[in-house]
């Protein structure tokens, strides 16, 4: 009887060991086999919107603009001043670094609306609020790294967009067998529906807010390892109002009563050479020129917080 009990316990032990080896996918002879890990980097199509940027397009209040969706992220708020740039984690908007295709840009946000880039040309967008690498020098706030997509080498494509908020024209097509280009031009339309010289609550609106922007990009693929990119970007913002003595701003701070004017513009041209080597090696060398103009009046900075209240306010 005792012998049968020991045989039963031994059989149960062997069965449990077999089940454990089956669950782990290993046998006694395979336990010493080395583990092989295969890793790689997925390269996004340079002519398409990246997966990360595509998620930002659907953010409520972004109006289809992946860059404007940054205001819905934690720690990002509207900053004061006239640039429309955000303040990230308590830093000043002037502390931010804006990069477009590897080179600095004048500004990337219109004063009262969305970003200066059409949704047709965005390829990728990254926000680094802190802990960024040494390649982002002279940035004490946040880094906005924007990549514009590569033109498609296809037949001419034309997109016309007309609305009460903004209208635009987009052209894209092949220039030769190994080169292509696109041109995007947009202009706000809301100023056409706001009468000039209108006065309300002591505020005399002399120039309704308006803006415009353009982007041009030409890419020439020089063989299998080299490419040359010529790009031009520009934008402008304009608004003017007079805050009378009976306005809310003048009642709180009488010294800020008077003319408030916003007049910003910039033009940026760049030339970039790219090298694509074997094994994922890549080199880039660029040169650019940026001319910016910023004009403001005494009441402008104090009046801006009342004009920015959130993404919904930008759409109205």
Task: Kindly describe this structure.
This protein has 316 residues and is of the alpha+beta class. It has one domain (51-305). The chain has helices at 2-24, 51-57, 248-252, 300-307, 311-315, and strands at 76-78, 86-88, 97-100, 103-104, 122-128, 143-148, 157-161, 166-176, 179-188, 198-200, 203-222, 226-243, 258-276, 282-296. Strands 7, 8, 9, 10, 11, 12, 13 and 14 form an 8-stranded antiparallel beta sheet that branches. The chain has a 4-stranded mixed beta sheet with strand order 4-3-6-5. The termini are far apart. Mean pLDDT is 78; it is low at 1-16, 25-29 and 298-316.
Layout of secondary structure:
Blueprint: H1 2-24, H2 51-57, E1 76-78, E2 86-88, E3 97-100, E4 103-104, E5 122-128, E6 143-148, E7 157-161, E8 166-176, E9 179-188, E10 198-200, E11 203-222, E12 226-243, H3 248-252, E13 258-276, E14 282-296, H4 300-307, H5 311-315
Parallel strand pairs: 3-6
Antiparallel strand pairs: 1-2, 3-4, 5-6, 7-8, 8-9, 9-11, 10-11, 11-12, 12-13, 13-14
Keywords:
316 residues, four-stranded mixed beta sheet, 40% strand, globular
Could you give the distance between the termini? 90 Å
The secondary structure category is alpha+beta
Number of strands: 14
Question: How much of the residues is beta strand, in percent?
Answer: 35-45%
**Shape category:** globular
| Pattern of helices and strands | HHEEEEEEEEEEEEHEEHH
Q: Summarize the biggest pleated sheet.
A: 8 strands, antiparallel
How many domain units?
A: 1
Summed over residues and divided by their number, the pLDDT gives a mean of 78
Unreliable spans:
1-16, 25-29, 298-316
Rg calculated over all Cα atoms: 28 Å
The oligomerization state is single chain
Number of helices: 5
What percent of residues adopt helix (DSSP H or I)? 10-25%
